[in-house]
Amino acid sequence: MSFEDQVVLITGAGSGMGRLAAQRLCAAGARVAGADVNEEGLRETGRDRERFRAFPLDVTDERAVARTVAEVEQELGPIDRVMNAAAIMPTGLLMDQDAGLVNRIMDINYCGTVNVTMAALPAMLARGRGDLVNFASIAGWLPALHFGAYNASKFAVVAFTEVLYHENRNRGVRFACVCPPPVATPLLDQAKSQPKVLEDLPPIAPEKVLDAIESHLDRGKLMVFPDRVAKLSYHMRRFLPGLMWAGGHRTEGI
C-alpha cells in the first residue's frame, strides 16, 4: 500500500499504536507529523526516518493543537489523514480513583480527540478528501469493572465519531472509529489495578489493528472491530448485558 507524499498527523506517536502507525506510514511513503507530550518517545519513533517530523504537543491544550495543525499544514502540506491515537488507561475501581484522574483520562482520551478533530477536519472537508481515524476501543462499547473512567472516555469517542460521520457523510472524507480488544502495546502497562479480565483476553498484535483500519476504510465501514473477540463483545453488550455483567462480577470477584 502506497501513501507516497501524503501528509499524516498522528497523535500519541511517541509509543504504542501511534508509533507503529507512524513508522509503517513513513515506510509507505507518507510524510508523518508525529505529536506527543513524550518528546523522547517521538525521537525514538523518528529515528533514521527522514519522512517523520516530531511535534511535541499536549492534546488537551486546544490552542496548542490549533497552532500545531496550522504548523503541520504550513511545513508539510495539506493533511490527508488524521489518526487520533493519544490515550492513557489507568485502571481502578471508580471509588479508588480521585476525580482529578478520572477527569484527566477524559481530557486526554476524549477531549484531545475532539481538539485535534475540530482543528484538522474543517480543511479536509473543504478539500473534499482525507481520512479521520479515531481510536476508541471495545471499551467504548463494553463497560467493565476497573475500567469505568476509561470506558467513559471511549464511549464518548464512539458517540462523537459516529455522529460526526453521519453529519458529514458523502463529503469526501472517510471516517473510522477503531474498537479493538486489548492490544499488545505499552498502554496495557498502565492497568495497575490488575484487572483479572485482562488475563482472559490475550492482547492482539497492533499490526492486526492497523491492517483492519485500512480494510475498513476501503470498504466504507465506520466501526472497526479488528477480530472476533471485539465483534463478540459488541454483540454481548447489545443483546446479553446481564450475562456480560454476571461474567464480569465472577471474573473480578466483586
Would you kindly provide a written description of the structure presented here, covering whatever features stand out?
The longest helix is centred in the middle third of the chain and has 29 residues, at 99-127. The chain is 49% helix and 13% strand. Helix 4 links the parallel strand 4 and strand 5 (130-135). It starts with 6 loop residues before the first strand and ends with a helix. The model has no long low-confidence stretch (mean pLDDT 97). A seven-stranded parallel sheet has the order 3-2-1-4-5-6-7, sandwiched between helices. The chain is an alpha/beta fold. It has one domain (7-252): Rossmann fold (3-Layer(aba) Sandwich).
Key features?
254 residues; alpha/beta; Rossmann fold; seven-stranded parallel β-sheet; 49% helix; globular
Please tell me the total number of domains. 1
Portion in beta strands = 5-15%
Strand-pairing-aware structural class: alpha/beta
Sketch the major β-sheet: 7 strands, parallel
Name of the CATH superfamily: NAD(P)-binding Rossmann-like Domain
* Mean of pLDDT: 97
Share of helical residues: 40-55%
Instruction: Tell me the distance between the termini.
Output: 47 Å
> Uncertain regions: pLDDT < 50 for 5+ in a row?
none
Discrete helix count: 9
Please provide the ordered H/E string of secondary-structure elements. EHEHEHEHEHEHHEHH
Would you count the extended β strands for me? 7
CATH class: Alpha Beta
Which word captures the global form?
globular
Topology:
Layout: E1 7-11, H1 16-27, E2 31-36, H2 39-45, E3 52-56, H3 62-75, E4 81-84, H4 99-127, E5 130-135, H5 148-168, E6 173-178, H6 197-200, H7 206-219, E7 223-224, H8 228-239, H9 241-252
Parallel strand pairs: 1-2, 1-4, 2-3, 4-5, 5-6, 6-7
